[in-house]
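Reopening this ticket.

The earlier resolution said the output was attached, but the attachment link was broken on my side. Pasting everything inline this time so it's all in one place.
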Amino acid sequence: MRSQKSSVIKQASILVIAGILCRIIGILYRSPLTAVIGNEGNGYYSVAYNIYTIILLISSYSIPTAISKEMSQRIALDDYKNAYKIFKCSLLYVLAIGGLFSVFTYTCSDILVGSNSSSVLKIFAPCILLSGILGTFRGFFQAHNSMVQTSVSQIIEQLANAIFSIGVAYFFIQSYTGNNSTVTAIKGAMGSATGTCLGVIFGLLFMMVAFAKNRSFIKEKSATKSMHVLSTKHIFKIIILTISPIILSTFIYNFSTTLNQTLYTKVMFFIKGISESQIAKDYGVFAGKVIVIQNIPIAIASSISTAVIPSIAGSYASGNHSILFAKIKNILWMITYISIPSAVGIFVLSRPLMLLLFPQLETLELSVHLLMFISISIIFYSISTVTNGILQALGEVKVPVKNAFIALILQTIVLVFLLLFTSYDLYAMGISTILYSMIMCILNQVALKKFLNKTLDIQNSILKLLFISCFMGLTVFSSYKGIYFLLKSNIISLAFSVLFGTLIYFALSIKQDLLDAKLLQSLPFGNSLISILKALHITK
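Inline output:
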């Protein structure tokens, strides 16, 4: 691990690439997994996973953000001794809190979820502790602006998750000798949950090896003198004061999924009289198919948010406001540049994507229409995720909490009304998803503009991006139809149309001066990319 600071764009790009690879792995394994456990099994897994995620958010999910923020501020001032002490205290914090919540989740699983999902949630319980430890190690490396370790561990975690989820789910189902379809679905969901936990274990093992290999660097830096060594009590106070608002913000920001799931299942079961198994099947379409695809580009925003927090926190701590403003502007531009064409691409290719990934014909039309409907939320969620991270890095940790709470209240009112008085059902879930992400996006940007007291002045560029993205969408859709007419192959047509659309978007961006050489150089392999573009006469 090197001590010099790297470009925030380059570090963000490393996590983005890893995030894309993880999502590709994740999306590819979901199709065979769904074929193994079915829509009902998907529903039970999703219910348990959403509760597990919420508990993880409360207990330790925000640890990497808090650690990287606090450590990077001290590293920026060359206070390595206190930075390393924060890391050690964070490990103790996670062991205590993560262990406590793991026990709580296991013992209270029957209360937290329905009886059919209880056994699935019990398998997730030890993951809470393990994920907290894994997050602590990731936060340590992120604080040093080294995203490679986090990126590799994420890929290893996702690969192990994919392999073991399918394998263990199949084994559990085959070991069941009865003919009850609901029990079969539960067994499959339990196997998938086991695969998720094994993925966390493999990711943690890699991070521990990476930490051990950098032991000499860590000891050398932590041995440097400090003007004032913080007491353990004071560090725990810092951790709690830093992590509490971040946890609250992240919890409320992500709680909408669990709240919407609970409202939907309760209204469908108690008021509309739908059976639990049918509700699980329907919700499995929304959460296990539509949201899975929607989350691919949103995961990129999450990776960028993770990468920018230590860099922005360090610049803010050092008082270099001109560099701080430039970093924020570049990051917002980057996420806008990625999210707009992603939303357009998923909208126009929703059917080919569903045919490739989730080809179950009985739910194909519903899943395609739902995906098209909520694709606009990709832009809102991506921007709000990144602005959440920026505001937290700037010390404005209470602002995302307030904004998330306002958005949650408004979307809940709309969802309850739609579920009770209309027959929109899953589309009501889609409407609330769009509304929540849009409100968060607007409120966060207003807060950021107020804090900076400067305008980012990227509106004209966004209009150009919208125009280019729409043109790209037309070319992607047309090329898919044309190639499919000739070859009758969905996967080949999809691959070529995506590649063609990406090239069109990239080339038009450069021609419209939306990408310059300086920004390209900040990307991984940027100089090589510029050389290729010059050879193709796309740029000078």
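Reporter confirms the inline version is readable. Residues 8-61 form the longest helix (54 residues). The chain has one domain: 8-457.
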